[in-house]
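Bench notes, afternoon.
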Amino acid sequence: MDENALSMDTLYRMIKEDIMLRRVKGGQKLRERELAERFGVSITPVREALTRLEYEGLIVRNGKARVVRTLSCAELQHYYSVRLLLEPEAVCLAAANATDEDIEELSDMVEDMKVYARSGDLQNLDRVNRMFDELIYTMGGNPVLKRFLMEILVIVFPYRVMGTRVETRLKETVREHEAIFKAIAGRKPAEARRAARRHIKNASEVVMLVMREFEEKGL
């Protein structure tokens, strides 16, 4: 891999992380020259990274400018509806296929979530939350299902972050992840599916409430 390709891949991951963790918010312009100066690279790898993010749906064109994509309440509800159909199946498959190593890794993630929630380290909590989901998608052993869920995760994650900023939801999120983990660790697919459905329904209700408040205020 040449230096330019490596630089593009690194830039892509860093900009994507900024968007998913809402360091860069919906509607904000992403200017190639500003990003090139910030990262100390040429325009070319920046342009390639933004093109890749545009293809994934995280950024969109607004005239000649590229901006971080913003979902309406209706669009976000559609994503959550599909997630509610697909993710419980992935969790069910994970419970059926989990190895001892998978369970140990999930256990460590749940413990990390508890630590970060208690300390108020929300960025690391968000990071581990995402890793938890990605590992479960992989554990299920269905690469097509994983691909669909990863596409949804990328688009929806910035809004999930908004939900975890609601104080009451923060503790519930950790408890729900622990319930999913316990069902997987116990190799109980049906229980894991139910735990996942509860988690997604609860999360979507809070996120949609926050989003409606934002829309009403014109934010």
